[in-house]
Amino acid sequence: MKSKKIIKIIAGVIIFLTLPSLLFFGFVYLKYNEDLPVGSQPEKADMLAHKMLIALNADAYDATNYLEWTFRRKHHFKWNKKDSICEVNWREYKVDLDLNNPSKSVAYIHNFRIDNEKSIELIDTATKYFNNDSFWLVAPYKVFDKGTKRRIVKQDNKDALLVTYTKGGTTPGDSYLWILDENYKPTKFKMWVDILPIGGLEASWNSWKTTKSGAQLPTQHKLLFFGLHMGDVKGRN
């Protein structure tokens, strides 16, 4: 009897903890989930993508050699864009990430270099952090990356830019629908990504900062009820 009572208590605690989460997920899914739209007019989409890059002064971004930011106050990045090297810091870990040749990357724990199975794990983690967290910083400038496809989708009777990444990064196949203002500057995008079970979630892209290099970069995003802070965003030549 005692063991049955313990099992009932444990089951009750599990239900108490998980039921609100399940109800919340169900609410969000019913309210926000959308199927991936079918886009068209790729030539027109390329023109719209170029207008977006002009609005953001993409030439200044291309000339920016150094970027620094902190994603959600957890992962800190110092990216030497010119040399494709990024220092990634989180908790007691640091990885000097060689983006062109990952085998040359170096991992540290408490600033002591390591070279074992743990270093391989840390380098893999740093790579995933960089792929995700840098996208939240520079995604608009990646619309012509190798392996991308661009299409036009109508949103509120206006042209929106659907970009699909067929390869590269951590989760190839992800799609993003960019919503632009009257000056072709991004205000938000909708996401259909492998990591999220709900399609079409919106994230804002309207807290822009012009860095010393002239590059325009976001300082934060809003996703549902959550803020995604980018920290003290810096960019210089």
Short description:
The protein is an alpha+beta fold and 237 residues long.
Give an overview in words.
It is a single chain. This protein is of the alpha+beta class. It is 30% helix and 34% strand. The chain contains 4 helices and 16 strands. Strand 14 and strand 15 (226-229) form a beta hairpin. Residues 19-25 have low confidence and may be disordered.
Structural features:
single chain; seven-stranded antiparallel beta sheet; five-stranded antiparallel beta sheet; 4 helices; 16 strands
Beta-strand residue fraction: 25-35%
Largest sheet: 7 strands, antiparallel
Distance between the termini: 72 Å
Question: What letter string, H or E per element, gives the SSE order?
Answer: HHHEEEEEEHEEEEEEEEEE
- Share of helical residues: 25-40%
How many beta strands in the DSSP annotation? 16
Structural class: alpha+beta
Low-confidence stretches: 19-25
Topology of this protein?
Elements: H1 2-32, H2 42-55, H3 58-62, E1 66-71, E2 75-80, E3 85-90, E4 93-98, E5 106-109, E6 112-114, H4 117-138, E7 148-155, E8 158-165, E9 175-180, E10 186-192, E11 201-204, E12 208-210, E13 216-218, E14 220-223, E15 226-229, E16 234-236
